[in-house]
Amino acid sequence: MIALAHFKKCPSILSIPKDIDLNSSLNFCTDTRKYHHPSFFVAIPGIKVNPLDVLENLLSQKCPLIVFQDDLINQSKVNILQAKFPKTSFLPVSDSVTFLQELSHQHIINWKKLNSKNTVFAISGSNGKTTHKEMLSHILKTIKPNKIVATEKNNNNHLGVPLTLLQVNDQTEMVVLELGSNHPGEIKVLCDIASPNAGLTTNIGATHLEFFETEEKVFDEEGHLYHAVKEFSHGKGFYLINKDDNFLKIFSSFDGAVTFGTSVDAEAKVAFLENGAQIEYKHQSLVATNNQITGRHNKLNLVTCVFIASHFYPESREEILIAASNFRPTKNRSEWIEFDGRPVFLDAYNANPSSMKAALEGFKESVLSQGFTLDQACVVLGDMNELGNSSAQYHKDVGGFIKLLGFNQVYFIGRFSGDYLKGHPQATGRQSAAEFKQDFRNVVLKKYQIHFIKGSRSLQLESLFDIT
Asked: What CATH number is associated with residue 149?
């Protein structure tokens, strides 16, 4: 719940109507389809739709306050609405997005002042951000119901982060915040809003190279969280430094930081088990197991989240391990499904070279552990988007990687299928999931015993199964 007194510290506000009670608290909404009385509504202009044109439902529910971006057109619309709905207040701001960011920042600063233990734990990185967020929030919400706020779905941008922070209330103890970026400077903006005092940068890889050009620039962007945590916690905040990552390992430690990984010089040492991983730190060992996850990368994600949760709630260690074992991957993200009696590994949400290779290695491990041969396994790969000028080479490299792993029953889907085929000429290429669907359902699915499906979101590979 947001104290409206925060309004006074938002420079974007042009004037505050006299009839607004600054001592009250209310939730905020930016989507007319999700409005529930008595939330406040923030009208954010869209490319095609002006929300002020579709407010009848909100206003008929007696919405107490509409925040709108002030200009001549909007002011004219507001005058008409004000006359028709006199009990609703209208708050003019210079920019609706800036208003949300200012308000959420002020709110989180005041929340952190309530208790020195209140924590904004932020997660950045090229791969595994959402998985870490889902795993960690699942564990924390299991042991601390109603005390944890976390990013919903992948609402990790300039709007999603403020809206997540605005969910924090006096009972909240920790915010698990995913930070997303596909343009330089975005992580800094999100950190300036959220003021994280703890965090993790998962890894650095070839992501969004269309905008970043090189992995070094990706590191500069994603690695900014390290500097932010150090700044906002005065060097005391809990931050994990991945010593196995060629970029992140160069970060120097500070009072609150802990290095981790399989590296010999890591403070928290990771070792992998058949169905999980363990981490040893200061003569104590944590073992995290889960039969629903695949690959070393996800085992590492899980044990890392167990370590994080145990740091903040050491008294709940047993509950943390039980919660970790009960975690299930979210829909279309590294999940095992059964379709027509066949086990299928489905990740139709995101793909880049490093995540693709990690997932394929994990799939090979699962194929063999389940008693299948590689010739009984089918691999379907979609395009990896936003790789810039190096797209062709990256797709060729992944094609060659699949061949090196020993997979021969392979289908490449999308506009880069020809580049994949340069790395694995024995595979088959198709232009789209729609073109491949009938053949997949009628022939391929029945011919092979176990399947791997992964590609960027735009390929909609889940449509092969009619999953939405």
From this structure: 3.40.1190.10
Q: Supply 145's token pair.
A: 């119901």
In this structure, the number of other CB atoms found within 10 A of the CB of residue 464 comes to: 24
Question: Does residue 103 lie within any of the structural domains?
Answer: no
pLDDT at residue 56, as a whole number:
83
Spatial separation of the C-alpha atoms in residues 28 and 460, rounded to whole Å: 32
**Phi and psi (nearest 5°) for 189?**
-60, -45
Q: Residue 7 is encoded by which pair of tokens?
A: 């309004």
Residues 257, 390 within the same domain: no
Structure tokens at 102: 């200012």
Q: Who's near 33: CB < 8 A, 6+ residues apart?
A: none
As a whole-number percent, the residues of the chain with pLDDT over 70 amount to 97
Please report the pLDDT score of residue 293 as a whole number: 87
In this structure, what CATH number is given to the domain that contains residue 402? Answer: 3.90.190.20
Give the CATH number, domain containing residue 28: 3.40.1390
Q: Is residue 104 part of a domain?
A: no
**Is the pTM of the predicted complex or chain greater than 0.85?**
yes
Q: Residues 405-422: what's their mean pLDDT?
A: 96
The answer to which of 30-34, 78-82, 134-138, 230-234 has the lowest mean pLDDT is 30-34
In angstroms, the CA 253 to CA 237 distance is: 11
CB-neighbour burial class of residue 40 (10 A; exposed 0-12, middle 13-18, buried 19+): buried
In this prediction, residue 21 carries a pLDDT of 65
Residue 224 inside a domain? The answer is yes
Per the structure, the complete domain to which residue 351 belongs is given by 335-465
Q: What is the pLDDT of residues 189-200, one digit of tens each?
A: 999 999 999 999
